[in-house]
Amino acid sequence: MKKNLPLLLILIVSFQNLNAQKLITSQDSMQVFHDQLFKVMKKNYIYKDSVNWTELESKVEQNLKQYPDFKSSLKEITTIFDVAKADHCKVYYNDDEFSGTYSGPTEKDFSEQWLKKFVTNPEFEVKVLDNQYGYILMPAMSFKDRSTENLHQQAQVMYDAINTIKASNNITGWIIDLRFNSGGDDMPMISALYDFLGDTDVWSEMNLNGKRVGTVKLKKGKYINKSNTVAYINPKGALLDKAKVAVITNIATASSGEITAMAFKGRDNTIFIGEKSNGKTTTNYIKMVAFGAYMTVSAGFDCDRNGVYYEHITPDIAVVKQDNFDDLLSDRNIQEAIKFITATP
């Protein structure tokens, strides 16, 4: 979950950046930046009470003395995230990203077909398989412009493409492929899939004590988070909330990709196929740090519409490394999806 930054805050930060440029090669600027990062973490990070901040701050303060300039000192972000075990947090400064040491899946964990498709940087696509099955590839996507209007525009294009297939073909069931969805912004993803979900709660946030502290819902095409419309589409035609849907995941499905899968938990006529997801199911918020940098900080847990938390999305039918993106009808995940769609109730 991402929160849009108020325009006033952006203007203030931009003004501060002009005055801060003189500082960013000094030890002072290093201290200012890391002090602010610690402040954000100590206030928002969901596991903040399990971190020895005094010890960690002292360690980082000593380490900062070895760096000749501000940019090189940003390597200490990795130290902070590693010690705090903040494996779903990131800092963004200019065009650079900084995170902890993440020992995630490697090439050997994927099929040759998945790797072949991955290097092409897969984009959203929707098409008909075998003249009767709707296929939607929903990859990772993120946008610097997270304004409601821009997210609407991004989602509407995808929604309209799905609607064209819906309106012009006799589709017996749908397959939503999240095998390349490693995260980003869930708002346009879920908005584009509105017809399949309908007017309902789609996911929620839970705090460390297991209490639901926020719910995201769809209503008449609007993506509503805590009473605020943050994205929307203009819906057309009948809903598909009763249609059969197969959701495909694998170990690359992470973060907002997992939220998108989670939105289908509790939905009737739905099955999950493939591999268990990556396990980045913490709710992240955007917070400003200093000098124009910002971070995504894990502040809660992602739950389904019924408040159920999933460390991973575990498939109903396991399929491991049997992908075929050259011929989707030969893909074992697709084959299992078709079995589900065509099975007699």
TrEMBL record:
The keyword Transmembrane helix does not apply. One of its GO terms (biological process) is proteolysis. Pfam families: Peptidase_S41. Residues 1-20 form the signal peptide. Gene3D superfamilies: 2-enoyl-CoA Hydratase, Chain A, domain 1. It comes from the Bacteria. Residues 107-320 form the Tail specific protease domain. SMART domains: TSPc. GO terms for molecular function: serine-type peptidase activity. Keywords: Signal. The keyword Chloroplast does not apply. This is Peptidase S41 protein. It comes from Bizionia myxarmorum.
